[in-house]
């Protein structure tokens, strides 16, 4: 295998690992105090995360609000605002580490945006178990607020506001209020029942990311992968296509894998933003990522065509490849059902599959016609596919190798 091809495949692996790391969110976080929260949200600005347990029967909300990348000179706040997505009227939980090294946590009812400091005051609802913690790690740390809120009956969607600001003389000072500051976008809504949120750009931003996720996966796993299989299975019958078919197959499948990993990571990120998951769709997506990665490693470990283990490698590679194709198509349709776009998009994807299937059927018939004709004329000798005979998701020179 050429050095360039090996470098390309290793680059794909490194890309997938980096994207996977990016996809890791608050779901993987564990509290040192053994606190467990059923739901969590990666808030879009200020490096903030909200973990919570909601009891609809008791009307209580148990929260842990944490912010990373802060110092002892910062305060943090998370609030519910019954009046809207704004600072004025917010019922806030505030915490900072004072000059004695003790984390102070208190409540503050914010009457106006024109205030110089946050002062302690009671809220419109009862707050219990209020506490804070600061974990220092080098130049920055993580500040967390813990509390239990007693909500009014029927309050299942709340307006949330979160902030980070400076501390001076053990007094929280006003945060950045410039129009471009992230502090001016730290508002949104939270549905406590299904975990859906809006923030900054609202639901439009989330829908746009869902559409990007759908397009990436439909193009990669759902279209490029089957196309790569067709290239490998049918172009090799033409002697003039050797070894071009092999490199076309590799280019197609590698592109599909890279784009597919980006789509998978986008889906994991979207899943982290809600506590309600479509588990079949998510689990199939994770399975596809694992199988696709295995295929990349399989190509790196591909034996020579005359090696005694080549037959077993072929069986493995073909089985995994066709499994990926089937699961990909199934998951694309599951994703379309979840997104519920205009019916034309499902029709368009169905038409693409019909087109690919029809061409595959025609090529399959033509391939067997060529193979049988060559056997009858005694010209069934295939060229040496050193660059890829049986090295893809398709059978090699069938008459010669019986695979």
UniProtKB/TrEMBL annotation:
Signal peptide per UniProt: 1-23
Membrane topology of this protein: Multi-pass membrane protein
Record localization: Membrane
Keyword RNA-binding attached: no
Domain DOMON: 46-165
Annotated PANTHER family: CYTOCHROME B561 AND DOMON DOMAIN-CONTAINING PROTEIN (PTHR23130:SF167)
Function per UniProt: May act as a catecholamine-responsive trans-membrane electron transporter.
The protein, known as: Cytochrome b561 and DOMON domain-containing protein
């Amino acid at each position: 295998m050429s050095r360039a091809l090996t470098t390309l495949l290793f680059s794909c692996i490194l890309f997938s690992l980096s994207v996977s790391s990016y996809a890791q969110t608050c779901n993987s976080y564990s509290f040192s105090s053994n606190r467990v929260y059923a739901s969590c949200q990666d808030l879009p600005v200020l490096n903030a995360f909200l973990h919570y347990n909601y009891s609809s029967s008791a009307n209580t909300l148990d929260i842990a609000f944490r912010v990373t990348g802060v110092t002892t000179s910062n305060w943090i706040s998370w609030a519910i605002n019954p009046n809207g997505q704004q600072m004025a009227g917010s019922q806030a939980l505030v915490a900072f580490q004072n000059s004695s090294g003790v984390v102070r946590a208190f409540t503050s009812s914010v009457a106006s945006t024109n205030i110089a400091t946050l002062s302690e005051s009671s809220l419109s609802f009862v707050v219990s178990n209020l506490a804070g913690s600061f974990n220092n790690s080098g130049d920055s740390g993580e500040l967390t607020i813990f509390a239990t809120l007693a909500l009014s009956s029927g309050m299942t969607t709340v307006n949330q506001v979160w902030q980070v600001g400076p501390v001076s003389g053990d007094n929280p000072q006003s945060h950045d209020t410039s129009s471009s500051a992230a502090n001016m976008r730290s508002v949104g809504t939270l549905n406590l029942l299904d975990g859906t949120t809006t923030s900054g750009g609202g639901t439009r931003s989330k829908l746009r990311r869902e559409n990007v996720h759908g397009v990436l996966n439909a193009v990669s796993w759902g279209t490029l992968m089957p196309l790569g299989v067709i290239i490998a299975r049918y172009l090799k019958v033409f002697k003039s296509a050797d070894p071009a078919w092999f490199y076309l197959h590799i280019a197609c499948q590698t592109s599909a894998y890279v784009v597919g990993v980006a789509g998978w990571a986008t889906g994991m990120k979207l899943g982290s933003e809600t506590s309600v998951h479509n588990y079949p769709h998510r689990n199939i997506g994770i399975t596809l990522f694992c199988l696709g990665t295995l295929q990349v490693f399989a190509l790196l470990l591909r034996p020579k065509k005359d090696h005694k283990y080549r037959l077993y490698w072929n069986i493995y590679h073909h089985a995994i490849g066709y499994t990926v194709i089937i699961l990909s198509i199934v998951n694309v349709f599951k994703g379309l059902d979840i997104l519920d776009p205009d019916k034309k998009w499902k029709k368009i994807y169905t038409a693409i599959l019909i087109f690919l299937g029809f061409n595959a059927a025609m090529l399959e018939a033509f391939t067997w016609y060529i193979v049988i004709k060559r056997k009858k004329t005694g010209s069934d000798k295939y060229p040496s596919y050193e660059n890829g005979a049986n090295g893809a998701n398709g059978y090699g020179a069938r008459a010669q190798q019986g695979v």
